[in-house]
Amino acid sequence: KAVEGREVLEAAALADPRRLEVEIETKNVWGTRIPTITTDSVRRTILARGQDPVAVTARTVESADQFEEVLEAVLEVASTEVTLRKIGEEIKKTTRRVNALEQVVIPRIRGEIRFIRDVLEQRAREDVFRLKRIKKKLEAKTSGAA
């Protein structure tokens, strides 16, 4: 409940309309582009607000101080929230990729490894069989020629 009244607070707020300069820069966190919000200090003195210290009550000054404090906190929280959301999105993407690797790609590669191993073992057995047959033929030739 406003003690001073709406008109008094509106007059104090409109005494010095100001534009708050907010910069949004992008930084790279773990390969993710994250926007960061930066601004000059939001808090001002009573004179910087354009208010007459004699004409403004202590409650109005306190309200303005609290508003600026809350505004500064909102800007900090907004920057943190955006960072957490972006990192959360990247974690979800990475989780999907890991699941795809674990459930699709790795089992397929293991199957291909088994197939290649089986083919190589079969070729090795065929080579051993051929070598034995060639050896028997050579032994037959040498024993038949002698």
Q: What's the gist of this structure?
A:
By secondary structure, this protein is mainly alpha-helical.
Description:
- It is rod-shaped and about 130 Å long.
- The longest helix has 88 residues, at 58-145.
- Strand 1 and strand 2 form a beta hairpin.
- It contains two helices and two strands.
- Strands 1-2 form a two-stranded antiparallel sheet.
- The chain has 146 residues and is mainly alpha-helical.
- The protein has helices at 6-14, 58-145, and strands spanning 22-29, 32-39.
- It has a domain at 6-93.
- The chain starts with 5 loop residues before the first helix and ends with a helix.
Summary tags:
single chain; 146 residues; mainly alpha; two-stranded antiparallel sheet; 2 helices; 2 strands; V_ATPase_D
Structural class: mainly alpha
Distance, first to last CA: 123 Å
Shape: rod-shaped
Order of helices and strands: HEEH
Radius of gyration: 39 Å
Q: Biggest sheet, in brief?
A: 2 strands, antiparallel
Number of strands: 2
Question: Spatial order of the strands in the main sheet?
Answer: 1-2
Pfam families: ATP-synt_D (PF01813)
Family: Belongs to the V-ATPase D subunit family.
Keywords: Coiled coil, Ion transport, Transport
GO molecular function: proton-transporting ATPase activity, rotational mechanism
Topology:
Layout: H1 6-14, E1 22-29, E2 32-39, H2 58-145
Antiparallel strand pairs: 1-2
